[in-house]
Design goal:
A hairpin with a 3-residue loop joins strand 1 and strand 2. The chain is of the alpha+beta class. It has a five-stranded antiparallel beta sheet, covered by helices on one side. It binds guanosine-5'-monophosphate and zinc ion.
């Protein structure tokens, strides 16, 4: 069982934000912003590459509720999912990073010259 499946099963403790039948939201152990919540499907999905529209259907409103509950919805926030090696995905169970609580920086994503690609 993967790390996040163990968190869903409560075999590994986590700081819960909210959950329903399909999804689980908990605070990131190494927060990158004042609010840094991870939202995951309760069933194991490797990454965004394996996500279907059907599975995504209720995730949108769940993430919006997380933003409301953590009091970042009005001021603004960022939703990110890292995919695979180049995306920097460390945990191979699909998760959305929900980040907010302060003005976020827009990162330096790659040393490759982006202009070479268009
Ligand atoms: P990734 O790099 O895969 O997009 O993000 C994985 C995230 O999971 C990281 O931000 C990391 O801090 C977080 N993380 C890793 N292990 C644990 C854990 O055991 N508990 C919690 N709450 N977060 C974790
Ligand atoms: Zn899993």
């Amino acid at each position: 069982m993967c790390l996040f499946c163990k968190i869903v099963e409560k075999e590994i403790p986590s700081n819960l934000v909210m959950e329903n039948d399909e999804f689980y939201a908990f605070h990131d152990i190494n927060p990158k912003a004042p609010v840094h919540v991870l939202v995951i499907p309760k069933i194991h999905v490797d990454s965004f590459n394996e996500l279907t529209g059907e599975m995504m259907k209720n995730m949108t409103s769940f993430i919006q509720e997380v933003a409301l509950k953590t009091d970042i919805k009005e001021a603004g926030y960022r939703v990110i999912t890292n995919v695979g090696d180049n995306g920097g995905q460390e945990v191979k169970h699909l998760h959305w990073h929900v980040l907010g609580g302060a003005k976020l920086k827009w990162g330096h994503f790659s040393d490759a010259n982006a202009k070479d690609f268009f």
